[in-house]
Amino acid sequence: MDFFSTVTEVHPSLDDTTGVQSKSISDDTLLRLAETVSALNEDKKRRLHKLQELATQLIDLWNLMDTPEEERILFDHVTCHTSASVDGVTVPGALALDLIEQAEVEVERLDQLKASRMKEIAFKKQVELEEIFARAHIEIDPEAAREKIMALIDSGNVEPTELLADMDNQIAKAKEEVLSRKEILDRVEKWMSACEEESWLEDYNRDENRYNSSRGAHLNLKRAEKARILVNKIPGMVDTLVAKTRAWEEDRGISFSYDGVPLLAMLDEYAMLRQEREEEKRRLRDQKKYGEQQNTEQEAIFGSKPSPARPSGTKKVVGPRANGGTNGTPSRRLSLNATQNGSRSATKDG
């Protein structure tokens, strides 16, 4: 924009290049100057707003298509004004019309490129959607969803922007769904972790060598102590999960599924299996107790069982050996008798 041509339109005397010494400062000239300044400010606002819109579109398209950084740098002079105020833009030429036109051309080029890469972009968003559902343990049919996307694109009955907007909406709803399920999912993870410890503890208790002084035995012992504490909390975990899940289902009118299986059904099945295991443990304890009682009664009637370390039977009395006792130990009694007999013989002979 040429400054001198602008002020000349207000009044010719304001142009210094004309050589006119006196300047018009009439009310009409001042009014026209004020109107010109106001019009220029409005034009500046419009240009900045337009440039900011283009900058936002550029950034969205870049992010959508993973445009490399070296291509984005070429339009730094556009995107740097994304959040600028009108008074904050003071660099000469920052809002030039040719610069705005250049940004418009780039946005149009990227729009065309986006249309040609529609399938790639749509499938990328579908993958994002599937990952969100997977983290939330929500089961979907990804193959059917991909086939639907292909059919929509090939038919040409849907605008690329509409399809992407619809997928963005699906992603937003999926994130909301994940957020609503977070508390229950966190409790499910803790419950499943406790169940794993419960299974490990059962295997540990069946190990007859668990108290041996083998390497790592003390670590297993500590883990078993913690596992027992955790296992005792499982019934409370299950009760809380059932209450939370029922409240969630009543609020939304749908079943809470975990990887395609209703969570309440999973919890009911676990409670039933746990009860069966407890009954089996009680049965085995009662059976063991009954067996021990039977053994005690038999011992009272027929006598105690012989110790396996000492076989029963008539002991054979081992006589004294010529040079020692019964177990190879010299017999002090035999030695004394031999000494006394020898003394008597010597006296008699003498």
Characteristics:
71% helix; 2 domains; disordered C terminus; elongated; mainly alpha; single chain; two-stranded antiparallel sheet; 350 residues; 1% strand
What are the SSEs and their pairings?
Blueprint: H1 3-10, H2 27-65, H3 69-72, H4 76-79, H5 97-116, H6 118-135, H7 142-155, H8 160-206, H9 217-232, H10 234-252, E1 257-258, E2 261-262, H11 263-302, H12 332-349
Antiparallel strand pairs: 1-2
Helix pairs in contact: 2-5, 6-7, 6-8, 8-9, 8-10, 10-11
Can you describe this structure?
The radius of gyration is 48 Å and the shape is elongated. Strand 1 and strand 2 (261-262) form a beta hairpin. It starts with a helix and ends with a helix. The model is unreliable at 307-350 (pLDDT under 50). It has a two-stranded antiparallel ribbon with strand order 1-2. It is built from twelve helices and two strands, in the order H-H-H-H-H-H-H-H-H-H-E-E-H-H. Helix 2 packs parallel to helix 5, helix 6 (118-135) packs parallel to helix 8 (160-206) and helix 8 runs antiparallel to helix 10 (234-252). With 350 residues, it is mostly helical. InterPro entries: MAP65_Ase1_PRC1. GO terms for molecular function: microtubule binding. Residues 278-350 are annotated as: Disordered. Its main location: cytoplasm.
